[in-house]
């Protein structure tokens, strides 16, 4: 008698990195290559870890997943960074705060916020994979990237204590960027790009042209992945998900 393979339900909850057209969206790339999963994505641009945790809690009873991928934390660092820039960037950060996106103000608060965010998944018999905060700008020597390293160490340590699998996508990015030599300092330097970049990158060709113009290798603007960057995240996640499938087969 032939063995019937039941489709597994995969839920991905993340910020703007989890959205966008298929060539820039790691969940789309994963879903295409792992048809064993019935995939649902909740992508919430601009949301902090706290708000993503709330979204996860709402999504779990809706989709009843066998496996969860949780990605976030970058906006907890970016919102204060935008406030420090001043001008229109500060106004944008204020708008995000008014929408309930209150960033963790230090590492201790980030740990508490992360624990609370993943708590709904821990209370159910499902596997959870956590993606680290990606590089925030391709210049790895900035204070922002140093803070990102600290936050990722907290995330990795806390996830380990909770029995969650962590994929350090930032380390993969750092290895590639470090090998290339001099990195572009571009980090969301054009305010107009906040509105125009989605139109400029509707095709893979357009996305690569945008990255090339700014001297970027893995991203469109220092944050959001170009096709190469999205492939890197997807490949790392595919490896972890394949292991999960094999372990529970």
Structure description:
There is one protein chain. With about 250 residues, the protein is of the alpha/beta class. It has a single domain, classed as 3-Layer(aba) Sandwich (Rossmann fold). Helix content is about 55%, strand content about 10%. A five-stranded parallel β-sheet has the order 2-1-3-4-5, with helices on both faces. Strand 4, helix 6 and strand 5 form a beta-alpha-beta unit. Helix 2 packs parallel to helix 5 and helix 3 packs across helix 4. It is globular, with a radius of gyration of 18 Å. The two termini are about 20 Å apart. The N terminus is likely disordered.
What is the topology?
Elements: E1 8-14, H1 26-33, E2 37-43, H2 49-63, E3 67-71, H3 74-85, H4 87-98, H5 107-122, E4 127-131, H6 143-162, E5 165-167, H7 169-180, H8 193-200, H9 204-213, H10 227-248
Parallel strand pairs: 1-2, 1-3, 3-4, 4-5
- Please bin the fraction of helical residues: 40-55%
Q: Nearest-angstrom radius of gyration?
A: 18 Å
Query: What is the CATH topology descriptor?
Result: Rossmann fold
CATH class: Alpha Beta
Number of domains: 1
The backbone outline, from C-alpha atoms, is globular
How many H/I helical runs? 10
How would you classify the helix and strand content by structural class? alpha/beta
Q: What order do the SSEs take from the amino end to the carboxyl end, as H and E?
A: EHEHEHHHEHEHHHH
